[in-house]
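hiii, so i know i said id send this last week but things got crazy w the move. better late than never?? heres the sequnce for the chain we talked about at the cafe, plus the structure i predicted for it. fair warning i was half asleep when i ran it
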Amino acid sequence: MLPTITASSNTSLVLAVLPPAVAPRRRALYLVGEAERSAPKPVATAGRTMISVNGRWTALRGSTVSYAQLLRIAYPDREGQAPGSATVSYRHALDSGLTGLLTPGDVVPLADGLLVNVNATFAS
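okay and structure toks below
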């Protein structure tokens, strides 16, 4: 289709071409539930430390958290079941010295903003 050009009374040309309508782009989510796991850090209540376990923010009391506690937080529906294998890694976004892996029986000091990833396999 060709653009329409019309002459007005004052001899100026008006170009009546509109760009094609473009649908707004949706935000791409690559993982199931990514919007929930990518939630911003909420404000901690008094006496609690905010940590992120698998992208979900949790407020904890105390100065340390154990391997078993992190498994219960990450998989509340599997309480009482021992995982076939589990990997618990942690890092602090600001303190590069606070990184590592946990094994059964290990504890890590709590720090506000600690990021924890728990991957477990529950074999039947």
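btw The longest helix spans residues 67-74. thought thatd interest u
miss u guys!!
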